[in-house]
Amino acid sequence: MNYIYNKKTILWIAAATLILGQGTSVGAEPEETRSIQTIQDLQSNSKQVLTSILQNASISTPSDVLYNGQGARTQIFGAGSNIESNLQTVAASAGNTTSKTTTTKKATTTQSTKSTTTKTNKTLHTLSNLKSVKLTSKSVVKLTDLNVLTQEDGKTISYTLTYQNNDSKNLMLIDYWTKVKTKGGTLYSPSLITRDKDKKSVAAGSTLDVTYLVKVGKSVNVSDLLFQIVKWDFSKPNYESSLGQFNVPASYTLSTPVNKSKSIRLGDTPVKVKVTKLEVHPVNEYNYAEVTVNLHNVGYKMLENPTAKWVLRTAGGSNYPLIAETVSTEAAPFNIQPQENKTIKLNATIPIAVKLTGAELVLVEEEGEAKTVLPLATLELPKASTTKIVATAPFKAREVDVDGQKLQTTLEGATVNQSYDKNDLSIRFHLQNTGKQTITVPKYEFVLLSGTGKSYPITTKALENVTLKPDEEKTIKLDISVSYAVAQGALKLQMNVPKDPEKKEPSFSYPAGVYILPTPSSLQNTLGSETTVKSDNGTYGVIWSSIQRLPWTDGDLLSAKLTLKNTSVKTLRLPELQGAFTVDSAKDMTSTKLIKSQAASLLGPGQSIDLYLLTKVPTSLDIAQLQVSLEEKVGEESFEWLKLTNIGAIPDVPKIEKNKEFTLTTLGKKAEVKTRKTVVYPGTSTDLVYTELEVTNLENRQTELSQLSGYYQSSSGLYFKTNVKQIEYPAGPEDKSIVTMWAKIPKRVTVSDMRLIVGEGVTEDKLTAIKEEPTGYVNAASLEIAPEQLTPLTKIEQVELYPYQIKTHTFDAYLSGGSSVAVEWYYTLTVDDAYDLPESEHKLVVEITDATGRVFAKELVPATDLKMGTNQLLSWAIDDRVFEDRRGGTYQISIYDLFQGEKYKIAGQSMYYNPNRIPVQLPTGE
């Protein structure tokens, strides 16, 4: 009894002290009357409180002063489980119910009064202020954690009850249960979370946390709920006995304050979570929110690949999923060692109209087989610091962070190609690892921003599986097609941190940098101009040297010549390239051939290589716009290097005047070409046009010259494919050789003003080799051939069938007196060796035309039938009845150049038969 009396006395004194302290802790108003009235009011209140204490003399513990019964506790003192916390609550309550300003201190040296105003801090009420519920005379249970997640179908509430067993034996949890109901009487059935279902008892002298999950209506507030503690009692009508309940007032804070840690369990690992920063980056119509969170593993084993998710919840209740910058993958798991701290950054895209004041961070995880979302913790977010992303000027470097390493990024330039209804924009973007460790470059997502605020995503695979060692660089090319109006406006490039590579939902991307585009350089009609291309292994200058439309057997050939120059200071290995034509808006990738002028793949500083793109198009196809593109092949993928555009008519093939040279510049096959002669072999229904080209090897060593191909072109636009004959062995340096080209032309076609289109032959995707048949040709020129008007010589004394010269000493046709004539030709045959010659197909035809009109012809092959050397004799016999009894007379000798069945006369001369071999006829006696 004395013990109880002493407790009452102590409580009475404590309460009186608190109330009187409350009255004196509140500063008086400036007016004295106000101060006196305040004290009187407090004294009056103190009497009421003392009376209440005396009436409750049966209370057994000091905490019962603050709370008794099962209803919601009174708010006048606050709430708590010990006297110390209640003292603080009472003092704070007093500060909140009276004036929030403190006035006046009288100066001791003067009678003047100075007024000072001080703001009183608002008291923070948390779950620790709630009174525990007694389970036994010694053991209690407390509500220690409560988290809410609002979803479309209602609110999911997780709450943790901490059982404190102060008894000397195990506390069996099977004897107790918890219920949740509203003040209006609606009852909800909570369930144990999966990992707590095996918790059956609390050991003596220990505590145990048990977490429950309950789903309530979307409009139900936590302050409307009663979390009841019951004990199974089969002696009661409903088999249960109510031990007490918890009610969380609306004024209570359920979230962990800023800069305070929240202890949770991720899996079975205890972790302290603390929010350290909230940054907001406004871009266009969105805020890119970045939350910095510290995780401290306070357990004794490693936290491996936590599966918890994060949600930003606004004061209005909207939920925005947050995505961690560092994603745990099988290749790079996210682990935290025991006692290790790790900082993670969480990001979300939030409409700019949504206010973030009072926002909270909610940590959730999926619960059980049903994958129920379980809120684990709620933490207050600090006041957001707004950082507007400043666009980086062109050609200026911007550093971005990649896993703690610095990646320097630079927008180096842009080009534009105009098509029919769009512009093809290409952006050159440079990356360099300026950190100290190798980094894997994120697969950044790029967006083109127009001056009107519209955004256009750019698709690229250039950053697939890219790693950079320290100081290593890489330049990528970003391509996008936009309207003409967009391409001409003020443009920016936005580089976003990539979305979740595991394709988890929700996905998220936010800007790591914004770059101002310079005015794009036009790549239209840039023949002869150099364009810079940067690749992984170096820098090239690319010149679109020529574009040609050439005749071919089954259509026209489109040929584009691109010259690649190594503008780096080191030898480069050419990447594997492929080319494509885009005719008007139709891209031709499959049939376009890319031919390199040399087989070697190394290119020294300042050296060049020619690339030819070749495809076939219908002869009748009109081309308004032609684009050529080079693409680099990497495995099964290809990345566009360059695209160039020609709008309007394709330029004519270069025209070369007669006796003027044009040069083939193919590396390793440089040569000078000019026409030597063109003649026409008249035929019956067709004429054979024959041209000899003089080709000089300009290389400083022996080389296989380009195999030529071509067409004769009439002034009326008709084309006739030529047959070609050239040497089948390498030509020595500065050696000259002859290439013969010919075709049969219908008699109706005028050949006097024909031209010869000739170029370097290609077979499939390489330059034509010796003895191979070309499937096309490139690098062509149109030669003026001006066929010679040949006048036969009137004497056969000196005749040329190039490269042979035949000097006739004597030519006699001996009559025999019978039907035969013996022909003897004494000659000297020499050859001009100034040229390397292909196998000759020319023959010499000697015709003897008798006065009767009979013609006797002899075909001769120089150097075979006609022997080389001086004063050679060639003889043959003619036998014909026309010569019987012939004693004299004349004949016409004609010498012809015979080629492919057609001939033209070189020389002719009238001569007398030689009768010297006619037997002498003796007179017969009569």
Span between termini? 203 Å
* Sheet having the most strands: 9 strands, mixed
The class by helix and strand makeup works out as mainly beta
- How many extended strands? 65
Q: How much strand content do the residues show?
A: over 45%
Features:
4 helices, mainly beta, nine-stranded mixed β-sheet, 926 residues, single chain, disordered N terminus, six-stranded mixed β-sheet
What does this structure look like?
This protein is mainly beta. The protein is about 5% helix and about 50% strand. Helix 1 (about 1-25) runs antiparallel to helix 2 (about 30-55) and helix 1 runs parallel beside helix 3. The longest helix is centred in the first third of the chain and has 24 residues, at about 1-25. It is rod-shaped and about 180 Å long. Residues about 1-120 have low confidence and may be disordered.
Helix-strand layout with pairing:
Elements: H1 2-25, H2 32-55, H3 83-97, E1 105-106, E2 113-114, E3 133-134, E4 140-151, E5 154-164, E6 171-172, E7 176-182, E8 187-188, E9 191-192, E10 201-202, E11 207-216, E12 225-232, E13 240-246, E14 262-266, E15 269-283, E16 286-297, E17 303-304, E18 309-313, E19 319-324, E20 335-336, E21 341-351, E22 360-367, E23 372-380, E24 385-386, E25 397-402, E26 405-418, E27 423-433, E28 439-440, E29 445-449, E30 455-458, E31 467-468, E32 473-482, H4 484-488, E33 492-497, E34 510-516, E35 521-522, E36 530-535, E37 538-552, E38 555-566, E39 572-573, E40 577-583, E41 586-588, E42 593-596, E43 602-603, E44 608-617, E45 625-634, E46 637-647, E47 655-656, E48 662-664, E49 671-681, E50 686-697, E51 708-713, E52 719-721, E53 723-725, E54 736-746, E55 755-763, E56 766-767, E57 776-784, E58 798-801, E59 804-815, E60 820-831, E61 843-850, E62 855-860, E63 869-879, E64 890-899, E65 902-912
Parallel strand pairs: 15-24, 26-35, 47-57
Antiparallel strand pairs: 1-2, 3-4, 4-5, 5-11, 6-10, 7-8, 7-12, 9-11, 12-13, 14-15, 15-16, 16-21, 17-20, 18-19, 18-22, 19-21, 22-23, 25-26, 26-27, 27-32, 28-31, 29-30, 29-33, 33-34, 36-37, 37-38, 38-44, 39-43, 40-41, 40-45, 42-44, 45-46, 48-49, 49-50, 50-54, 51-52, 51-55, 53-54, 55-56, 55-57, ...
Helix pairs in contact: 1-2, 1-3
